[in-house]
Design goal:
Blueprint lengths: L10 H11 L12 H9 L2 H15 L3 H36 L2 E6 L2 E6 L8 E5 L7 E13 L1 H4 L5 E2 L18 E2 L4 E13 L5 H6 L11 H31 L5 H19 L3 H19 L2 E3 L3 H5 L5 E5 H5 L5 E7 L5 H10 L8 H12 L4 H4 L4 E5 L7 E8 L2 E8 L1 H6 L5 H16 L3 E10 L15 E9 L6 H10 L3 E5 L4 H11 L7 E3 H5 L3 H7 L5 E3 L3 H13 L4 E5 L5 H6 L2 E5 L5 H6 L2 E3 L4 H41 L11 H18 L24 H28 L3 H25 L7 H7 L4 H19 L2 H4 L7 H28 L1
Parallel strand pairs: 9-16, 9-19, 16-18, 17-18, 19-20, 20-21
Antiparallel strand pairs: 1-2, 1-3, 3-7, 4-5, 4-6, 4-7, 8-21, 10-15, 11-12, 12-13, 13-14, 14-15
């Protein structure tokens, strides 16, 4: 075994090894080339139609119109590419936040680094709950037990010991003095000398196959995709219909011109019908929502989880660290005999780890420190051996060479310690009565005992063969978080049922649940009772139970499954390795970012960077806000496409010549430039509705374009169509000159664009008036830029030389104000509907 440098690698040594071995990462999926993303965007039906229209203009011998069309195509594609790039940047930033981190010793300092930065010969520090990121030798171990089932398939944890040789033999492929990447620390801690990283690890050799895994679309993605497909089919049907009508109406033209004009009319209606903004809106809203949540200490690892939080109906939480502060303190010490209190204090310290990571052991040593038992005084004798803690025994112990004899000091669950203590049944019953009284106070109880052995050969091989002298009980408490009662009440008002899942006993769990306001806290279902129930019976039981005690990982999975069987959308919080299966099975797995294990964070959809219950409540609020805004954006897009589509459809039917039509393909493109930024940016920034946390969760099966939203959007769209097309048609009938065609078109488009600006404000809230929603964002610079930019663009279209290229005409001030007034009226009537609804309710 080579000499270990306990000061760790220097910066120069790290850089040298990184150059030689590269980053510590598995084989990654090949990143899609940028040009392929651009090509995918261009192949969207909308852009194919735009390019086709531009080519027809060139074919007609009108290069100016064709050039303008291509310019608009490039602008819109650039916007799409920018939004795609921005989304990628956001998601990459979120991935960086969630990157696994590990403690290492470098330059004689312990520091936390991204696991990708690990290099061979690093000194890596591991502890309970950590997913090991590299292969390496165990150079220091403290009750270190590791689950290697991800590699070996064997479920039993392997107890690790310090390595004595770096030479591998063929017969000991899986060594007990070596750790492997991808395995989990179940108990204890250790220091590892890294030997292999990245694809050179045993896990990395397997990981190459994972790079081919395909991503599955979320239900919301599928809904949007289905909606776009339906609209595209309708668009193709209308394209053919309008093209046929135009062809037979324009019988005065030559055959070639009739074909071209009919195709242009068909393309116009198709462009108007295809709502290609839907996928853009979904991606932008979810990614920006995830970024906003990350700034609020809630890290979304799966974008679809953002909107799923809006449908949350059951929140299953762990007691320790989620409901409570995870800051154990010794609140009572109960010595079995009055004269053994000092000895009890000493033994409970000796039974703890010298450098503990367990909160209870830290609290015990802090208590001892205050009562005169410093670490120097406690741990000044040779440690002969130790009895590690196991889930089966639920106790642990140390053997010390002290005071010219051997002292076995043990602590653990009261039942386990009482079983191996030399007490009468009457004594044990009295102690159990005391334990029940402490448990009803919500205290965590640990029993302490000792055995003195004069001969080393008489030391029992395992703790269960000891005959302990019972010394007493230690009572610890983990106080509830400060805002937890208010947060649970907020959940109740929002129709979210909070249930507690804990490995603690029923009395303690029930006591804490009562303190924090969990309903039906008296009704506790224990793990033992759960074992007696079938899945069907459990699904019936969970209707009335909110506290589940003494539960195992399998129990947690069954409880989550039972709630889901009842139609609930379930979020599950957890921090340990044992929580990972339930986190994966829940609709939303929520892991703790600070104290959570690496495996729990990997299994989760959402990571709380501050381990705070309030952050869950805020995430639910934001999830509901984001989903609401997506619905508003979908409704808005649907509204604004109705007048565009009906205009493109009705013009040819009424026999209006192609040159005099309200909207030509170039004008549809112009409106697209207004729609995309308005709905993607302004609506995404809208604050939540005032009643967002006092209404029940939404139905997860509900379509995003509900019947109510469809009817509302249809009526709004029809009113805008009647107003804009009406002013266009009225103006057109006044004088059949080319200039009049341009004037009519300009007035109709001014009404449409003005209506668009009012529509985004009116539809930003289901309760507030448009003017109120505007004032809520009056300090938002981005909103001002978008709305102000749209107004300036409208003025430029009307009064700058651009209007000549676009077949538009300048308006008089009277005409401009008439159009603005009509645009406002065509939308703001819905505010009157809101007022009437408010009065009626």
């Amino acid at each position: 075994m080579k000499i270990i440098n306990w000061q760790g690698l220097t910066l120069d040594e790290v850089e040298e090894r990184q150059r030689e071995f590269g980053l510590n990462q598995l084989e990654k999926k090949k990143k899609e080339p940028f040009y392929r993303k651009v090509f995918t965007i261009i192949l969207e039906p909308m852009f194919m139609l735009l390019i086709a229209a531009a080519l027809i203009y060139f074919f007609l011998g009108e290069p100016l119109d064709g050039g303008i069309m291509l310019t608009f195509v490039i602008v819109i594609i650039t916007i799409e590419i920018f939004q795609e790039w921005k989304t990628d940047q956001t998601l990459n930033a979120l991935k960086d936040l969630s990157a696994p981190r590990i403690n290492v010793i470098r330059n004689n300092t312990t520091k936390k680094i991204s696991s990708e930065q690990l290099v061979p010969d690093d000194l890596m520090l591991i502890e309970e709950g950590v997913k090991i990121p590299a292969d390496g030798f165990v150079v220091k171990a403290n009750d270190l037990s590791i689950n290697e089932s991800s590699l070996t398939g064997e479920p039993e944890a392997v107890w690790k010991k310090m390595t004595k040789s770096e030479v591998f033999k063929e017969e000991d492929y899986w060594r007990d003095d070596y750790v492997y990447a991808g395995t989990l620390v179940t108990t204890g801690s250790g220091t590892i000398l890294v030997s292999n990283t990245g694809t050179n690890t045993e896990y990395g050799k397997i990981g190459k196959h994972l790079a081919t895994a395909k991503e599955i679309s979320s239900p919301l993605d599928k809904q949007i995709g289905k909606l776009v497909k339906v609209c595209t089919i309708v668009a193709i049907i209308l394209l053919l219909l309008v093209a046929a009508v135009t062809f037979f109406n324009d019988n005065t033209l030559e055959l070639k011109d009739r074909i071209i004009q009919s195709v242009l009319s068909g393309i116009t209606i198709a462009m108007a019908m295809i709502p290609e903004e839907f996928p853009v809106v979904l991606t932008v809203f979810l990614s920006m929502g995830a970024w906003r949540l990350a700034k609020k200490k809630s890290l979304i690892r799966k974008l679809s989880a953002v909107e799923t939080m809006g449908a949350l109906s059951v929140l299953a939480v762990d007691k320790t660290g989620t409901i409570t502060e995870n800051r154990m303190t010794v609140t009572k010490v109960w010595p079995f005999e009055p004269n053994v209190e000092e000895r009890l204090n000493e033994v409970m310290g000796l039974a703890s780890e010298i450098d503990p990571y367990d909160p209870m052991e830290i609290a015990i040593l802090e208590y001892d420190e205050k009562h005169g038992w410093s670490k120097e005084r406690l741990f000044n004798s040779p440690l002969i051996s130790e009895y590690p803690f196991t889930d089966e025994l639920k106790m642990m112990g140390h053997v010390w060479d002290r005071n010219n004899h051997f002292e076995i000091t043990a602590k653990g669950s009261p039942e386990s310690i009482l079983t191996i203590s030399n007490l009468t049944q009457e004594m044990k019953q009295n102690i159990r009565t005391k334990i029940d009284a402490f448990a009803r106070e919500g205290l965590r109880i640990i029993a302490v005992g000792e055995q003195i052995v004069s001969n080393k050969n008489d030391i029992p091989k395992t703790l269960e063969y000891c005959k302990l002298t019972f010394l007493g009980l230690i009572c610890l408490s983990d106080p509830p978080r400060k805002r937890i009662e208010a947060d649970i009440e907020d959940c109740r008002k929002a129709g979210i049922r909070v249930v507690m899942l804990t490995g603690d006993n029923g009395l303690t769990a029930s006591s804490i649940a009562k303190k924090v306001g969990i309903q039906n806290a008296n009704k506790v279902l224990t793990g033992h009772e759960l074992n007696q129930l079938s899945d069907k019976e459990l699904a019936e039981k969970v209707h009335t139970r909110t506290v589940f005690s003494r539960v195992t990982p399998e129990h947690k999975m069954r409880i989550v499954k039972a709630f889901k069987e009842n139609g609930a959308i379930v979020a599950m919080t957890g921090d340990g390795v044992n929580d990972a299966p339930a986190l994966k099975y829940a609709d939303i797995g929520i892991a703790m970012g600070k104290r959570g294990s690496e495996v729990s964070r990997e299994a989760a959809d959402l990571i709380l960077l501050d381990d705070n219950f309030s952050t869950i409540v805020n995430t639910v609020r934001d999830g509901r806000r984001i989903y609401d805004n997506i619905k508003k954006a979908i409704g808005y897009i649907f509204v604004i496409h109705i007048p565009i589509a009906l205009t493109a459809l009705l013009g040819p039917i009424l026999g209006i010549p192609q040159d005099a039509l309200f909207l030509l393909p170039v004008h549809v493109v112009l409106l697209e430039l207004v729609i995309d930024p308005t709905c993607s940016i302004v609506l995404e920034r809208q604050p939540s509705e005032h009643n967002i946390m006092t209404r029940p969760p939404r139905d997860p099966k509900e379509n995003i374009l509900t019947q109510k939203l469809f009817v509302k959007s249809l009526i709004q769209g029809l009113v805008i169509f009647i107003t804009s097309f009406g002013i266009y048609y009225f103006t057109l009938q006044q004088n059949h000159t080319l200039t009049n065609d341009e004037l009519a078109r300009t007035m109709g488009m001014t009404v449409l664009i003005t209506a668009n600006l009012f529509l985004v404000q009116v539809n930003s809230s289901n309760k507030l008036l448009g003017i109120q929603t505007f004032f809520k964002l009056r300090h938002d610079k981005v909103t001002w830029i978008i709305l102000g930019g749209t107004l300036l663009g409208l003025i430029a279209l009307i009064y700058s030389p651009i209007n000549g290229f676009l077949d538009l005409a300048p308006l008089s001030m009277k005409q401009l104000f008439i159009c603005i007034f009509l645009g406002m009226v065509s939308v703001c009537w819905y505010d009157i509907v809101k007022v009437v609804k408010l009065i009626m309710t």
